[in-house]
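Issue: copy button drops trailing tokens. Both records pasted manually instead:
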Amino acid sequence: MFTFIDVFAGIGGFRRGCELAGGICIWSCEKDKFARQTYACNFDVDYHEFAEDIEDVDPKVIPDHDVLLAGFPCQPFSTAGRREGFAHETQGTLFFELAKIIKEKQPKAFLLENVKGLLSHKSGSTMFTIMRALDELGYRVYPKIIDADGFVPQHRERVYLAGVRDGIDLGWHKLMGPWNTFEAPQKGSIQLRHILEPHDQVPAKYTLSDRFMAGLLTHKAKQAAKGNSFSYRVFRPSDVAGTLTASYAKSGQSILIHQGEDKNPRKLTPRECARLMGYPEHFKISVSDVQAYKQFGNSVVPPLIRAVMNAMLPWDYRE
């Protein structure tokens, strides 16, 4: 059993994966009021602090913990003052708030998540700054891009940074870190048919109207005439979907579900989005469709987090 804190908690994807791996959450932080609502509906937040704005938190008041978890937003970093180290280079970014917590609380390990583009952001300088900052704080960091395909029926590549404090032996291979023992299921082993509702049970509002479909076709033709690519993606039950994004409410054509040759395709329902992200049936959705799409599109995949944590965990808690 280990303790963890849930920073930029969202709706609790990190928390659920970590709890499945045997962890106990002792502190959470999330600013978005609708995400906080969903989080509080699904997790017991009465026995620990549930902070709102990380920028208002003094790291000293955060309880000591074994693992820090965070899917942090990627913001621009300073390109000046590289000799001053992380305190100068990351000032004003939300990553800086994480760095302050890590410096103050010195957790045994951390797991950070971000979009794959973090690796190439600003020609790699952002990633360099992050890695250098964490090294200065006394941590060995092991990055890896992982596709959620196999854990869920969705191609979803994200970069994960697994870190361990210097002097702690987790039994990791020196070059690969936890990824030496990390096991991912076979891609395609879970298909959309495993998460979709029967068509006759899906409310009609999720089916695209003839007018909307005509607009998609017109827009596609206009873009093609300009030499630009634009397409809506229609998936069948035997397929693996593309990436669910936070803008799915507005750009639902990125994942459309085939309903037969004589019927327009439809969008995923919020419950199907929950399943697409690996949330269980008992996970409560207490917000509007628009907010639910945003929340699941911003989430991590809990079954994947569980697998990563199981690969990270072979430390001796009696340190």
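Record 2 (pasted manually too):
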Amino acid sequence: LTVDSVASIISSSLERVRALRNEVTAQSERLSEQLRTSVLDGLAHAFKTPLTTISVASAGLAEVAELPEEQRGELLGLIRKEAERLNLITEQVLRTARLEWDKVLTLTCVNLRVLLEETISVLGERAAGKIGIVQQTERMTIEADRAVLKIAFEQILENALKYGDPGVRVTVLVAVQGSTATISIHNHGSYISPKEQQLVFTKFYRSPTVVHRANGTGIGLSVAQHAVTAHGGTITIRSDKGEGTTFVITLPITEEEGES
């Protein structure tokens, strides 16, 4: 009788462990699927700008029969540059599509300033001379998936440039407190009401106050939030009608300094 009772207890405990393990696995798969979908959305969203540039440059070459050699060379160079950018984005899409459920993120030591500078470079003419980085700390290394985090920064910086006052620089402030890195991206001129500060992270949501100011799909900030959350971080908004809007990203930081 004692053996039967113990066996029954063990069997019941094992069943609960199996149920819990299945539940954790299912939840992990759901989160992985959400992240992968968001990353693919972001990469697809990134196709739009180079395609538009190539289309416009090609139209210019086709419509003007005799362009000066210098202008013709500039347009051809622009088409080549954006075609290369599309190729890189395509590689990212394919890499993301091949990711296994338990390998959504490929973590390496990444220097935040270097990554931000690379992101600004990717934005090209839209960001040239329009974004300033203020570094308040020497510790800049975090453990992150370089490609995924770059997508998040690109979406937020592009958003800040798009809706800020023309001619006013976007400020990126990087600071560290304890084991947390904080990246604050501020533009002047935009305002997001408290009611909308969570809605803007909803896929396809676009505020009625800005829908006519600039083109957009409402995907970018949703992608950014998923990417930041996957890294164990948070993203919040501070907004004031007089001061503008700041997106505040927090990320865990590694103990030892390194660069990638």
